[in-house]
Amino acid sequence: MTKTNLSHSSDPNATSHKTPHEETVMPDPQALFPIRTVSELTSVNAITLRAWERRYGLIQPQRTEKGHRLYSMQDVEFIRAVLSVLKQGVSIGRVRDYLGTSRDPRTPLAENTADNTMVPEQKTKLSPVDIGDNQENLWGNYQAKIQQAISQFDNTSLDRIYHDMVSQYPFHLIGQEVLLPMLQRSAEKAAGLLAVSAEYHFFHHYLRSRISANYWKDNLENGQRQNSKRLVLASVSQEAGDIPLLLLATDLVTQGYHLIFMGDQVQADALPLALARANALGLILYQTEQASAAANQNPLQALVSTLTVPVFMLGMGMNDRDSTDDQKTSSAPTLCHSLPIYCLPSDANQAVQMINQHYAKL
């Protein structure tokens, strides 16, 4: 497999590297997909899909003679509609009130004559009044419960709440709506406050151990697949960056990537050796916005100039001043601060889509 070369011009418009903008081939609307493929299409892992079927009756896939699940494009679009409702704070137990089931959807699917795919006739959008009238605040309730457990340094309660979340909800939503906001708020308040600092370290260590366990088994299985794409992940920030990278890693392994995770405060000049020995096709770095605007850009510039694989950056995000409005809404990678490094949005699901697009032709 040929590695992708990345141009090192400081001008983001003067690069010889081709970012794949080709249209993705749409699946056949009549096709049936195994559960692993559906996980890759929706970023919802197989365990969660089975839970939605068994516990809530939301999805009703077909079965092969041997009992293996097969999902239609209508099922896939319904799962995406479920994600839209969950993101707005509605619990999985209430989703059926809004959407029905995949075989009897409240929001019917209509054919898109342009590409013959099935799409929802209208986006599932709940107003704050809809959610408020039902006293529904899924993510806020989880945050409150977790905060209470953290303040009491209660491992048992924290673990029970965590497993309740991951048994019912996609991990990228849990990370985006609960874990990262709580960790960031705790870190901001920790300076100079011993009690908050202790809570932050307690919560940070818990998340590191649990999220690592979430993705580790699948990552090892991906490493045994001949066609898996290898990526190295490392934080070069002086601030803790392992949790955002681990959340991204959890999504990436559902897409079949095999990850080499380097952890926090990695020296930039140590990364070329890891990339070469791991035979990796790309590098994903974490760097905070504050650090990227300072002189710490120079080690990154020196690092990238020695590499022949794409480099992606988490932490700078799409607030980057070099990104246009069109780039912020595009699924194509954009360059960070005129460095030959591709910015990734903070939303893990969107970041995975960008990475997938980049490697689609490999």
Order of helices and strands: EHHEEHHEEHHHHHEHEHEHHEHEEH
CATH architecture of the largest domain: 3-Layer(aba) Sandwich
CATH superfamily of the largest domain: Cobalamin-binding domain
Choose one word for the global shape. globular
Main β-sheet, in a few words?
A: 6 strands, mixed
Helix content: 40-55%
By DSSP (H or I, 4+ residues per run), the number of helices equals: 15
Instruction: Please provide the count of β strands.
Output: 11
Q: What is the CATH topology classification name of the largest domain?
A: Rossmann fold
Our measurement of the CA-to-CA distance between the termini, rounded to an integer number of angstroms, reads: 7 Å
For the record, the count of structural domains works out to 3
What is the residue-mean pLDDT, rounded to a whole number?
Answer: 76
Indicate the CATH class of the largest domain.
Answer: Alpha Beta
Into which percentage range does the β-strand content fall?
5-15%
What structural class do the secondary elements suggest?
alpha/beta
What does this structure look like?
The chain is 47% helix and 11% strand. It is built from 15 helices and 11 strands. The protein has helices at residues 35-42, 46-54, 73-87, 95-99, 128-133, 138-151, 155-166, 171-190, 194-223, 242-254, 271-278, 289-292, 297-305, 325-329, 348-358, and strands spanning 32-33, 62-63, 69-72, 109-112, 117-120, 230-235, 258-261, 282-286, 311-314, 334-335, 342-343. The protein is globular, with a radius of gyration of 21 Å. The termini are close together.
